[in-house]
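Hi everyone,

Forwarding the result from last night's run.
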Amino acid sequence: MSRPGGVIREETGQHIGAAASWGRRGVRELGTLDRAVYETVATVPTPSLDRALARLSHAADHSKLWLVGAGVLAAVGGERGRRAALAGVASIGVSSIVSNLLVKRLLPRRRPDRTGATVPEMRWVRMPTS
């Protein structure tokens, strides 16, 4: 037994609306969790970890670590390694485009508030501009 087209569209709209509402709520909750973790980490003094993690973070900028890994895999992995490296580099490109051109525009957020979270100035690192 078939239903009238209007009912299907109406039900579909309700499901889409519920999913969008759940998605917005989930994003808000993730934002709250993100800020809480940032503020907690900011209040714990870890000078030796700060230096090491800052270096790791800078090494990972622009997917450098993943690209180096793909290069190593291509160099030592034979034909199968080269194919895997190519697939990995392609996925880096796609994920970069999706996150930078789509997700960041749909879900904009401000950079963390270092002064509001009482991050000691000696722990400040250069904030990204993009």
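Residues 47-111 form one domain.

Cheers,
N.
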